[in-house]
Specification:
The complex is a heterodimer of chains A (about 140) and B (about 190). Chain A is α+β, with helices and mostly antiparallel strands and about 140 residues long. Chain A is built from 4 helices and 5 strands. Chain A has a single domain (about 5-140), classed as Alpha-Beta Plaits, CATH 3.30.70.3270. In chain A, about 20% of the residues lie in helices and about 25% in strands. The termini of chain A are far apart. Chain B is about 20% helix and about 20% strand. Chain B has a 5-stranded mixed sheet. In chain B, strand 1 and strand 2 form a beta hairpin. Classes of the chains: A alpha+beta (about 140), B alpha/beta (about 190). The interface of A and B includes residues 23, 39, 42 and 56 of A.
Chain lengths: ~140, ~190
């Protein structure tokens, strides 16, 4: 029988969140065509040690995806500028109640451990953009 | 002779009014006036050999009216591969009425029922408007859901989660600034009673 680990890495099973990467920019919530992403956040002010201008940053309070409404279009994953959202192939998360399908930030964070590394590129494919960028940066430094 | 040439020749010879052909990216499309809709579909079947009726539906083109489309195909024959043809016509928005083609292609009846309930387009047979039963919607449903001015109930029932700015939550949401509007949802004043 096929298991989750047999599925390709690009499978759209569940969306995982690295909340450390999330800046609460609201882009995913605004782009979502089915209105299933709910984000609450507040602003905190940092005073730099040793003086300087205070800076504000957004702190995430709530990040929830309602899988009862989600249509698995992947727009949120595409649009996230900070790679906070990722697809994981895990798909067995049916619930007895409708509210069980709303995954809050802790549950979305747990899914992150099931995100597989991306599929190996075809041997004739051009290398990934980030690999090329890193190589260029390394040679420049040298 | 290419498929486009065949279609152009057949319509020039067989239809009393001039038609326009559009190849574009998709299947070959022929635009006919609504008055000659039945003739145009019948001609595609009898002269061009498009014996396969795929679907009939419509597009809400807003101010232009409604565009009714019918996708027909000629099956591969004599070494010529499958050929597609879209027959299209434009109806005025205030009186969208079109002669039915359910007797040209028997399967078109279902598609006309669906187009009738989704867009509010009437189909006539022998000059009389057909009383079409709803196909997918419940009996008591009001409105035509695929018209662009139809507001979805689920978009009215709850607020847009993207209205908040970064750093805001449901509890602290301010109301002084101009809020971003959800894409595709008309301004509140235009639909809220």
């Amino acid at each position: 029988m096929a298991t989750v680990s047999d599925l390709p890495a690009r499978s759209r099973g569940v969306i995982a969140l690295i909340e450390e990467n999330c800046t609460s920019c609201m882009l995913c919530a605004r782009e979502c065509p089915s209105w299933c992403i709910h984000i609450d956040s507040h602003q905190e002010t940092d005073l730099p040690v040793g003086g300087g201008r205070p800076s504000t940053r957004n702190v995430l309070d709530r990040f929830a995806i309602d899988y009862a409404v989600c249509m698995y279009c992947s727009i949120c994953v595409e649009v996230c500028p900070f790679d906070a959202l990722h697809w994981a192939p895990e798909h067995e998360y049916a619930g007895a109640e409708l509210v069980d399908l709303t995954h809050e930030r802790d549950r979305l964070r747990e899914w992150m451990w099931t995100v597989p590394p991306p599929d190996v590129l075809d041997e004739h494919a051009e290398p990934g953009k980030e690999v090329a960028a890193a190589r260029k940066a390394a040679t420049r430094r040298r | 002779m290419t498929w486009a040439d065949q279609v152009a020749t057949a319509y020039d010879a067989g239809l009393a009014v001039p038609v326009t052909l559009e190849e574009g990216f998709g299947p070959l499309a022929v635009d006919v006036p609504a008055t000659h809709w039945r003739e145009a579909v019948t001609l595609a079947r009898d002269v061009l050999g498009c014996g396969f009726f795929d679907w009939l539906s419509a597009v809400d083109e807003l101010d232009e009216g409604f565009r009714v489309l019918c996708h027909l195909a000629r099956r591969p024959q004599d070494g010529v591969p499958l050929a597609h043809l879209l027959v299209r016509t434009l109806l005025p928005r205030d009186a969208p009425v079109l002669p039915s083609v359910r007797d040209v292609f028997a399967g078109a009846g279902w598609h006309e029922r669906e187009t009738h309930e989704m867009f509010g387009i009437d189909f006539t047979a022998d000059g009389a408007v057909l009383a079409l039963e709803p196909l997918l919607l419940p009996e008591e449903f009001e409105g035509h859901p695929l018209r662009k001015d139809f507001v979805l109930a689920s978009r009215v029932a709850r607020p847009w989660p993207g209205a908040k700015e970064p750093g805001e939550s449901d509890a602290t949401v301010g109301r002084a600034r101009r809020r971003p509007r959800p894409p595709g949802v008309p301004d509140e004043g235009t639909w809220r009673p």
